[in-house]
Amino acid sequence: MRKSAADRFRHLFNRSLILLRHRHHHHPFPSSSSLSPFSRSRFFSSTPFSMASDSPFPVTAQNINPKVLKCEYAVRGEVVTLAQNLQKDLQANPGSHPFDEILYCNIGNPQSLGQQPITFFREVLALCDHPAILDKSETQGLFSTDAIQRAWQIVDQIPGRATGAYSHSQGVKGLRDTIAAGIEERDGFPANPDDIFMTDGASPAVHNMMQLLIRSENDGILCPIPQYPLYSASIDLHGGFLVPYYLDEATGWGLEIPELKKQLEAAKSKGINVRALVVINPGNPTGQVLGEENQRDIVEFCKQEGLVLLADEVYQENVYVPEKKFHSFKKVSRSMGYGENDITLVSFQSVSKGYHGECGKRGGYMEVTGFSAEVREQIYKVASVNLCSNISGQILASLVMSPPKVNSLHL
Ligand SMILES: Cc1ncc(COP(=O)(O)O)c(C=O)c1O
């Protein structure tokens, strides 16, 4: 018997509450505020660990980096663990539950739920990975002409035509040129390929920025609540302080400037140096699309307060309300007359979201503007420590920012 998605979710949720209550019975659960980071992580950890003295392992949960212990990532947390256990149950004993399948909706992962990849993207990727077939006559019958043309263009941009080689640490220059041109077309303002740092999805780019900005636990990052938990996890991992600001459900999850000011002042009064403001637009999990006026106020706020604006814009294609439109923060700040020297802005984009949903390909970039040459050098140095992001992800990021257009085929 198949159950509705809502029933499945309710069932899973109730099971997880039962599991939590059960644990509570065995381990008195102090309020989370009275838990040390260590004990809080221990409570939420899904794998029990033994005490250091009993352990045959030199590395134990007591002696690893406490920032790792403190970090929580709900997307892969308790409910997912429960679902994986239920799945094992179902495999071992089919029919043991009133459902026969588990759909994982803990993270936006459309292709795992049956969404088909965009043919053009996959054809270009396949051809770039095996350029030897590009000029074979059979290829004309198997692949679309525009995919073949684009693949030629891309392989010619990749040094040695080798998708198996490391690239420039910021990403292949020709692909960054395409991305910059795509940004320019989207925003109507210039974009510089040297400002683009290609990454394995948006997540590593967010970590890069947290690593750059957070010096100690006195450094704070303003983050929306509710938020996508990458931000809280990354701030914990880098040992910073999450300064929450609350989105207002009553105004469609609006981002209110007085709320930002209130939280900023509260953090300052506790001795926190607030370094950056994270804005997720369009929002996750809230789905709101900010209005341009509101975005202008946010830009002004960051400028006045000297905050780096970290704009998570990975959902720019996911706007489902006809009267709403996505505006990038880069476009908004440039249309206010603010250039490189006026506002420090990092925009994150990804191949995982939008209509393409290529999460597993791990592609994305950050556009980094308004940093001094010295700091950019440091960002570049850290990017080079990782050598480069994967080339398929880089190619996809260029395609996402420059998809085929009607009548664009040159025959
Ligand atoms: C708001 C937001 N930012 C960033 C990410 C990370 O995406 P990725 O690392 O796959 O690009 C996600 C993923 O769900 C997200 O929802």
From TrEMBL:
Name its pathway: Amino-acid degradation; L-alanine degradation via transaminase pathway; pyruvate from L-alanine: step 1/1; Photosynthesis; C4 acid pathway
Keyword Amino-acid biosynthesis attributed: no
CDD domains linked: AAT_like (cd00609)
Top enzyme class = transferase
SUPFAM superfamilies per UniProt: PLP-dependent transferases
Q: Give the matching InterPro entries.
A: ALAT1/2-like, Aminotransferase_I/II_large, PyrdxlP-dep_Trfase, PyrdxlP-dep_Trfase_major
An example GO BP is: L-alanine catabolic process
In alphabetical order, the GO MF annotations are: L-alanine:2-oxoglutarate aminotransferase activity; pyridoxal phosphate binding
Name its co-factor(s).
pyridoxal 5'-phosphate
Where would I find the Aminotransferase class I/classII large domain in this sequence?
A: 158-407
EC number(s) per entry = 2.6.1.2
Task: Please tell me whether the keyword Disulfide bond is annotated for this protein.
Answer: no
User: What keywords does the record list, in alphabetical order?
Assistant: Aminotransferase, Pyridoxal phosphate, Transferase
Q: How does it assemble?
A: Homodimer.
Q: Which family does it belong to?
A: Belongs to the class-I pyridoxal-phosphate-dependent aminotransferase family. Alanine aminotransferase subfamily.
The name of this protein is alanine transaminase
Output the lineage of the source organism: Eukaryota, Viridiplantae, Streptophyta, Embryophyta, Tracheophyta
